[in-house]
Amino acid sequence: MRKKIVAGNWKMNKTVPEGEELAGQVAAGVSSVPAGVKLIIAPPFTHLSCVRKAIAGSGIGLCAQNCADHEKGAYTGEVSAKMLSSVNVEYVILGHSERREYYGETHEKLVKKIELALEQGLSPIYCVGEKLEEREAGKHFEVVDSQIREVLFTLSPEQMSRVIVAYEPVWAIGTGKTATSSQAQEIHAHIRKTLAGKFGALAEEISILYGGSCKPSNAKELFACEDIDGGLIGGASLVADEFLAIARSF
Ligand code: PEP
User: Fold this and answer.
1) Whose CA is nearest to atom 8 of ligand 1?
2) What is the pLDDT of residue 92?
3) Is the dihedral of CA 193, 195, 201, 205 positive or negative?
4) Residues 6+ apart with CB under 8 A from 68
5) Is the CB of 44 under 6 A from ligand 1?
């Protein structure tokens, strides 16, 4: 059985006290979420230790939004996978389209980041997804395939078994435009088929999350699709009631 996951990407939002409050609200509401749905929250680096305390004992997973592509050393401003694991972070978002677009994250860098994260026992949430012009040109399958082949195909089956994939069409992130459930299901099924081409039956065990303007009003229809195992939620994860309502949509 694949894990059902709802992960909140807070991006660069909330001060530390605000983040502690939000995490406390999510933890207080976790009992309203169906058993078997894993909640994960991804605050900024500065918030991780406080948020860890606020969610202690709740079963909510703690996730970082990035990690360095080097183990340690003279890389001013970077945070290593080992540092994250030393504050009990369990997951790390890698390859988010905002990082690919604004911080020049290449496939080569992402392979390094994923390897270092896995070495430290972190589970990467690896994001893929096409831009609007790529979808309009009918290239979405091709784009996503190359994001998978050039990065995830470098992993061993054991490494791959610890990766979560998130399909996030760039045109749907923060825009209020959501992929329809049939568009999302079509590409999720394609991603699973691509993974099966390399990893065989393991592909059936990999959770593939949908991300892009997911909200309480559309989550039910998306999560009902066969190959959609949950969501990576941006804007709606900043309000505890909305985030929890999305998680109750299973
Ligand atoms: C995201 O950036 O991961 C995301 C899904 O954002 P939003 O839900 O705000 O579209």
Assistant:
1) 234
2) 99
3) negative
4) 75, 78, 79, 80, 81, 113, 116
5) no
- Ligand 1 pocket check for 233: Cβ under 6 Å: yes
74 CB-contact burial (10 Å; exposed 0-12 / middle 13-18 / buried 19+): exposed
Q: Please, which residues have CB within 8 angstroms of residue 53's CB and are 6 or more apart in sequence?
A: 20
The alpha carbon dihedral of 199, 200, 205, 210 has a sign of positive
Q: Give the count of beta carbons closer than 10 Å to the beta carbon of residue 158.
A: 9
- Structure confidence at residue 177 as a pLDDT band (50, 70, 90): confident
Could you list the active site residues?
A: 96, 168
Residues facing 38 on adjacent strands = 5
CATH code, 4-247: 3.20.20.70
Establish whether residue 168 lines the binding site of ligand 1, counting it when its CB lies within 6 angstroms of any ligand atom.
yes
3-state SS, 94-119, equals: ECCHHHHHHCCCCHHHHHHHHHHHHH
- pTM over 0.90? The answer is yes
Give per-residue pLDDT as tens, 13-50. Answer: 999 999 999 999 999 999 999 999 999 999 999 999 99
Nearest Cα neighbor of 232 from 122, 89, 94, 112 is 94
Question: CB of 128 closer than 6 A to ligand 1?
Answer: no
Q: How far is the CA of 9 from the centre of ligand 1 (A)?
A: 7
Q: Determine if ligand 1 sits within 6 Å of the CB of residue 43.
A: no
Q: Where are the domains of the chain?
A: 4-247
| DSSP one-letter string for 210-225 | EESS--HHHHHHHHTS
176 CA from centroid of ligand 1 (Å): 9
What is the 73 CA–ligand 1 centroid distance (Å)?
32
